[in-house]
Amino acid sequence: MADLLEVANIETSYGLSQVLHGISLAIAPGEMVTLMGRNGMGKTTTVRSIMGLTPARAGSIRFGGAEIRTLPSYRVAQLGIGLVPEGRQVFPNLTCRENLVATATNRLGATDAWTLERVCDLFPRLGERFASMGNQLSGGEQQMLAIGRALMTNPRLLILDEATEGLAPLIRTEIWQCLTHLKTAGQSILVIDKNVEALTRIADRHYLIERGRVVWTGTSPELAAAPDVQHRYLGI
Q: How far is CA 72 from the centre of its chain?
């Protein structure tokens, strides 16, 4: 089966400062893949390059078999990549319900399209906070809303940048349960997070990066069995 996303040797810079030095990764349909590394190693820049927010100046990014490296970010989103950004970035002056409705679309004609009801089944707390403004939600509720907002676009690929950063342990557990449910349902997922234990429990494969380069890749059992790799590249 062909990969859904294939990133090959991309190089990305901010001005004269090059951040990515030939990053390559791939995600198959229905696969959950992680991108891990210490802070400042290029994880978010990789996501921004995929999304067209900080375009890569070299290399290839193919999604569904089509080259997308030079496309504007709105076209990348329309092709079916949903982003849960670092910092959540919910609309503070819209209600929880309005945040979800604002992104609702089914451009690709999914037969089991995400609806407000389905999102609330996934995150019952959001249903309870429908009338609350985005800036009145807790950090955990905002993260649930950011995930629900991305799902309302009915993405073929869901990307989460710092999926559980700064969240309370109980909320983290709820987010991991959500991602497990989505993966079981066949959702393709790329996730950035620091929780190796949780990620090796639910993800299929992992890419570890350092200074804008992939330095290790392997399956969850391989990463779990390599504490030296975890210590060297993740500081664990």
A: 18
